[in-house]
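Re: [ENG-882] Designed sequences occasionally contain unexpected residues at chain ends

Forwarding the minimal case from QA. Structure tokens:
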């Protein structure tokens, strides 16, 4: 198991290195002046030259990348690791920007992922076990409704009902968890419910389909023919095989969502990684764009490593070699 995880981690680091190289080449090796793109619109020639000198853009491209790579993993003078560069648009290091925005995205995505996985997988599996019943039809209707709606519509309806009409919740404003746990909870409950409703609908359909397919397999019929109790058949033979594709989907969805929930943050007025990335693209803030791409890739790579590790524990058919 240790060798397996080590190989996955090394492969993940190699992938992250490739992403950093491609991203750097896209922004700094193209035939244009990166300093002009990063400097504000009112940037004069003197400040433009200062930006070019501070960023070391007069050095060879290989030297520039090695300096950037060293900053990310080992830090640079006056900038501890991970040193992600300096944003001349925000007039602060990119690391400081992420220190403010990353907790917002984590607070939205992680609890919402727990909700949508528990609700979606549980609903889908119960629906498969009660195929053809009223509960099954209601679950299918729920999944179709959630899959056909858009996040900004559901979020807007929840804001209209619970914030403006009933006034049982305050307008969402992010408060750090350690500063005020109750304010943190009340501000994020609507984004959690919105994401849980939409994502759980997809997972309910996927879980139901996987359960029905697994229950029709020969080894499941053989287990029943041996006289095993239905609960044992479902727990030992059906669930472990049906949950494998769900783990794959969950790893990709959570990793992608951690890279930035743009629509969610915009709908509820939060400023996380998603809105930061959109603003960086609009303003031509290259260091922030590069750091966002690198961080999003890191989230997806970590999620895939976790999924690979879970495979070996969930499905006995998966081998470490």
């Amino acid at each position: 198991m240790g060798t397996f995880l080590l190989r996955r981690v090394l492969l993940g680091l190699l992938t992250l290195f490739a992403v950093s190289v491609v991203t750097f080449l896209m922004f700094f090796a193209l035939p244009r002046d990166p300093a002009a793109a990063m400097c504000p619109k009112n940037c004069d020639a003197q400040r433009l030259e200062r930006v070019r000198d501070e960023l070391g853009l007069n050095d060879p491209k290989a030297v520039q990348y090695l300096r950037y790579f060293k900053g990310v993993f080992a830090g640079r003078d006056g900038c501890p690791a991970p040193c992600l560069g300096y944003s001349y648009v925000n007039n602060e290091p990119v690391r400081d920007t992420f220190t403010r925005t990353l907790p917002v995205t984590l607070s939205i995505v992680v609890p919402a992922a727990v909700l949508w996985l528990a609700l979606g997988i549980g609903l889908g599996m119960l629906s498969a076990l009660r195929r053809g019943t009223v509960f099954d039809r209601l679950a299918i209707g729920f999944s179709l409704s959630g899959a056909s709606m858009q996040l900004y519509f559901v979020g807007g309806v929840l804001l209209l009902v619970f914030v403006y009409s009933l006034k049982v919740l305050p307008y969402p404003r992010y408060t750090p968890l350690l500063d005020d746990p109750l304010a943190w909870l009340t501000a994020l409950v609507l984004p959690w419910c919105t994401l849980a409703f939409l994502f759980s609908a997809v997972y309910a359909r996927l879980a139901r389909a996987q359960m029905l397919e697994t229950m029709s397999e020969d080894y499941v019929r053989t287990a029943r023919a041996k006289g095993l109790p239905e609960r044992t058949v479902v727990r030992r033979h059906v669930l472990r095989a049906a949950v494998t594709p769900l783990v794959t989907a969950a790893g990709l969805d959570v990793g992608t969502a951690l890279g930035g929930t743009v629509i969610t943050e915009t709908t509820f007025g939060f400023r996380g990684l998603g809105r930061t990335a959109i603003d960086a693209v609009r303003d031509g803030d290259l260091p922030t764009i590069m750091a966002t791409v690198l961080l999003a890739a890191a989230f997806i790579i970590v999620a895939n490593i976790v999924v690979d590790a879970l495979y070996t524990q969930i499905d006995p058919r998966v081998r470490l070699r």
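QA comment: On inspection the terminal residues look reasonable. The longest helix spans residues 94-129. Proposing we downgrade this to a documentation issue.
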